Amino acid sequence: MFRIGNLRSPKGAVKERKRVGRGNGSGYGKTSGRGHKGALSRSGSKRKPWFEGGQMPLARRMPKKGFSNYPFRKRFQIVNIRDLARFEENSEITPEVLRQRNIVRRPGPIKLLADGEIRVALQVKLHRASKSAVEKIESAGGKFEELV
Q1: Which fold has domain 74-146?
Q2: Mind listing the pLDDT tens digit for each residue in 62-114?
Q3: 3-class SS at 141?
Q4: Which of the four pLDDT bands, split at 50, 70 and 90, describes residue 148?
Q5: Looking at the chain, which residues constitute the CATH 3.100.10.10 domain(s)?
Q6: CA–CA dist 29, 18 (Å, integer)
Q7: What are phi and psi of 71, to 5 degrees?
Q8: How far apart are CA 135 and CA 117, in angstroms?
Q9: Whole-number average pLDDT of the chain
Q10: CA-to-CA distance for 2 and 113, rounded, in angstroms?
Q11: Can you tell me the distance from the alpha carbon of 131 to that of 145, in angstroms, rounded to the nearest whole number?
């Protein structure tokens, strides 16, 4: 009958601790399973997971190929058409105006995307815009000018 006092772990679930340095009869005496000399026989020594025993590492054996433009990339801040719908008719929108209104916070170039609708004519002067964003501005009677 099952009772709390009768419960046991399944066979093989609990491993006994390896007791090293308890004489040669135990199988782990003298060098305690570490072999003779070398870095791994010393205390505090460990290998990094990517260490390959001194052979040429995989990362250095593979051919180097390609180029990354990461450090030189331009990071545009995104503004959508729906963010411009709040402005009054015929107002001029520049990066400075967007920063004053807290639509854009960081410095750097700004790109206009076409998400949302606009019904007022605006004069937009930004660094970039998608084709569909320019079409929406012009269909509302506005004008887009690209800054350099």
Answers
A1: Ribosomal Protein L15; Chain: K; domain 2 (3.100.10)
A2: 999 999 999 999 999 999 999 998 899 999 999 999 999 999 999 999 999 99
A3: coil
A4: confident
A5: 74-146
A6: 11
A7: -70, -20
A8: 11
A9: 93
A10: 68
A11: 12
